[in-house]
What does this fold into?
Amino acid sequence: MMFSTSASADRLNNRLARLLVLGTWTSCGLILIGIVLPALGASLRPASAYFVLTGIVLLIALPPVRVATMAVWFLFNDDRDFALIAALVLAIIVASTLLGVGSA
Amino acid sequence: MLATSVPGLFCISVGASTLGGVLGMASGIFIVPILTLVANVDVHLAIGASLVSVIACSCGSAGPFLKERLTNVRLAVVLETATTLGAASGVLLSGVVPVPILYAIFAAVLLVSAWQMLIRRRDATIPDVGAPATGWARRLDAVYPDRNLGADVAYRVDRLSMGLGLMYGAGLLSALLGIGSGVLKIPAMDTALRLPIKVSSATSNFMIGVTAAASAGAYFIRGAIVPEIAGPVALGSVVGALLGARLLVIVTPGKLRLTFVAVLLVLAVWMALAAIRVHRGL
It folds into this structure.
């Protein structure tokens, strides 16, 4: 029993590690492309801003996606308490983001 | 101005983040003062850019900690309820706190960080005493691999409510100042929860990204995250964090400790002077 819980916890850890590292490199890659593009020609400037913006939005979205992944994982592993807690964290992040709309 | 050009911002961020990385601190505590004081970036834009870089550094470095089972993901998600609530409060506050007060709070945080750097962190002794043997908090207990012992070491999570309280404060500071706020997370993890240092560092690093994301979304909607600033700053911070981690192996942080205390003190005084200058409208 103990062994199987720890093995499944390892699977969660590995999945989260893959998600976070892949997400960070993808968004950093997009930002890098966006920063380098204007050096190749002024006509590429609008496209470059789009790359940087996409990279930044992806970075900001990465932690909530990580929390959502945990919520789903806990749910499918019969750990309702922790699935609920993760869902609560996700709800707070959404609410906190929406506070920006009111004060924009 | 050279410092606010893309290469300038990139280099400043590499420097600030390398400095943070060598110390095992989040980069934000150096990035915001350097961007505002040296590069003359508006403080709200500096905080927005710093939040993005804090997320990048947290997510980018989480891999090895997770794979080595140093990160306690269950404890992290429980504490994140407090840090994100704190971040939401910080978002509300950041709209009303005047800029001089913001500078003053930052100066205070730099001072406390300098003091924390002087006193070394230690593993809590006899972590079992005081923790109830049963209860919900026991579901957060875990084991971590200790390289020195070559074996798994079990640890308990202590005084969860006090930890949650400090984490709320950490989230608030993070959203208000754009920092990872290790300044409150370290006492929360070491003094309240009494975790082994490696577990504490890994878990707090894991949480920093979620905490920063809770406020970064609001800053983004408000227009305080400008791609021209946040892009190079985020990229530079990731490069700096990688460099810092490499340097950490080569240099002995003990010898550099006093130098860094001095850097933090200088920044604290500079921030305090900026607070007075802005307050007087000079």
Notes: Chain A has one domain: 2-102.
